[in-house]
């Protein structure tokens, strides 16, 4: 895509300045090509910044329940995957916590990913993605530690057998 855009830019520059003579045309088309190349590099940079990836090691996630933690950092995605997606269980370390919560800073906990910035396709052809990465903390049996879940939660959690989280959620997306 980038190569075709660059060739179109150079062709447009040459066609615009073709009648002005060889020296002036070469100078102007060269400056136009550098402008196109600069624009292309900016475009590629923006695309790379918007690229969404799995939730992997050292990803900081927001905690959206009332267990007492604010932010956690993913240590490992369970089931031997390279990363976690919606509904997957992770092991995380608590990085920020409220003073009187059930979970303290530095504790290693399990969590279920309830919002992910990476898009996921649905059966009907639509795709779901969120603005942030969020997790609900659970115990080893998979039961939520908190008693409330804040924000939207996708209904794909039902397929992953996290019905208790869905029942605590205020809004199912």
Automatic annotation (TrEMBL):
rRNA-binding recorded as keyword: yes
Keywords: Ribonucleoprotein, Ribosomal protein, RNA-binding, rRNA-binding
Coiled-coil parts of chain: none
Taxonomic superkingdom: Eukaryota
Any Pfam family: Ribosomal_L14
HAMAP family: Ribosomal_uL14 (MF_01367)
Family: Belongs to the universal ribosomal protein uL14 family.
Protein name, per record: Large ribosomal subunit protein uL14mz isoform X1
Species per Swiss-Prot/TrEMBL record: Ziziphus jujuba
Gene name, Swiss-Prot/TrEMBL: LOC107410789
């Amino acid at each position: 895509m980038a190569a075709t855009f660059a060739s179109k830019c150079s062709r447009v520059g040459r066609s615009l300045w073709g009648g002005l003579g060889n020296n002036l045309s070469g100078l102007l088309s060269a400056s136009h090509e550098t402008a196109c190349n600069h624009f292309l590099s900016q475009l590629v940079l923006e695309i790379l910044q918007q690229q969404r990836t799995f939730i992997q090691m050292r990803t900081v996630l927001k905690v959206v329940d009332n267990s007492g933690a604010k932010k956690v950092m993913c240590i490992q995605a369970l089931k031997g995957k390279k990363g976690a997606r919606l509904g997957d269980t992770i092991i995380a370390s608590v990085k920020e916590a409220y003073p009187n919560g059930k979970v303290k800073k530095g504790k290693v906990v399990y969590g279920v990913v309830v919002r992910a910035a990476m898009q996921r396709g649905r059966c009907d052809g639509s795709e779901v993605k969120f603005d942030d990465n969020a997790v609900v903390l659970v115990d080893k049996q998979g039961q939520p530690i908190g008693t409330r879940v804040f924000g939207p939660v996708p209904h794909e959690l039902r397929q992953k057998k996290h019905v208790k989280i869905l029942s605590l959620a205020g809004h199912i997306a």
